[in-house]
Amino acid sequence: MGTLAERIAGHRIAGASPRGEIEWLAAQGEYRRLEPGQVLTSKASGVIEGMFLVLAGYLVLRVERDGDVVRAMEWRAGDVAGLLPHSRLGAPPGDSSAEEVTEIVVIKRHLLPDLIAACPVLTAALVQVMVDRARQFAARAGGESTPPAAATARLIGRQWSAESHTLKDFLAAHGIAYTWMEAESDPSAAGVMAATGVSADDLPALLLPDGSVLRRPAPAEIAQRLGLQLDARHDFYDLIIAGAGPAGLAAAVYGASEGLRTLLLDRHAPGGQAGTSSRIENYLGFPEGLSGAELARRAALQAGRLGAEMLSPVAVTSIAFDQGYKRVALSSGRRLVAPALIIATGMTYREHRARGIAELNGAGVYYGSAAMEAHACRGANVIVVGGGNSAGQCALNLARYAATVQIVVRREGLGETMSHYLAGRIAETPNIQVRGQTTIEAVEGQGRLERVHLTVDGAPRMEEASALFILIGTQPHSGWLPPEVLRDARGFVLTGRDVAGHPEFSAVWREPRGPMPFETSVPGVFAAGDVRAGAMNRVASAVGEGAMAMRLADDYLKG
Asked: What is the average pLDDT across 502-508?
């Protein structure tokens, strides 16, 4: 049979790992042999908080679903699984037992950071497993033909509900597996609601795999119940990064790699606006493209592997400056201190002023690409407002489901604002129509979007539409910053030579030297990505800015 290390080396996931990684697994992992019928985990005794590799045999997980015990998942030799409640490797609390003689290696939760640090090849394979399963869960949640997994959480709500949209967006952004059940059109929803005691007034409701029910929960409540980290481990950090978009994630990766005690914060989820993109096709090193969510997951895992700490959803509410230290107040009420701070909070979409938009926000009107709503647009007519790359990717994704997609822009076309490759793909997609010199005047509908009033070449026009996606009028998310951090007239944070030319610079700058590139009007406070004046608004440039801002912050810390 060979030694444990030799057997691990033959595992489908671990097989490509170098000898040192295999030996680490053999030394740190807990080997278990299960006889037929022997229980690995039970709902009563709890779950293995970690992950396991199946070396041989066959395991089955059974869970209780609406009063019946169902066969939820199975694992065979070569499989890998996580047993954290919200794990993207996917399994809920339940009764798992061996169907035949089964051998596994368990890696407990507290050892996972060491695994990530010691086994980069294995980590890469695990990331790919998570990405693949996240795609499957996203398809199931959105209503694809694949049967929903009994192992996932279930979100019951109304399609045209702003509250339901908020929860779907939060779960999708964090890569949390769930199955969407529309309360009024899904024939099984009524039975599930009756079995779990959920009333119409309780919607949206999240049914967790352990049988508990969250009624109209806030995202923070979900995060707490699913074990996402919401509280900092320390009071003092070398570097705090506000915003976990591409710039913030890059800064966290490089900060942690340089040995800085690094904390990354985001008020929503990793990825920022880029995280909502259905496909990024011009990012170096990914010839087939990748989704923004996939990029964010990879970067967040990489930052964690190197030692960065991330809190989400947790926002910075205020900053005070005290003799070189930055005192950061969080939405959780916690107060932290760091000598260096990077602002990477990106941009938000400006509220559209057309009549009816505010009333139907989340009920057919969405800011951003809202990829999780694409399945609800099957066979419908939808409108995308905006001529940038994000709008183009949104339209292409929607075209896979919708009958027609109209891209509405003020200019004559897309040539001035969209990458050439993307505009070309849109021109080749038969169910996408570009409407130039067009503006949105009003939207209307009974409880949901039904009609959109346009002005086309100066003439009024009405279109029936089920969804309107707004991807224009971005503004920097900088309103939370104190006045000492100087900004331009539009609110973008000034850095380097730009901030040195501001008329109020001499009143706030107290150093004999001038500001470094990416440094703001406050020494030791840097800005990177879309929130910074002069940024290129591309993922690749944001990553570069985040890395450079971290390098300069490191220089600042070294004096």
From this structure: 94
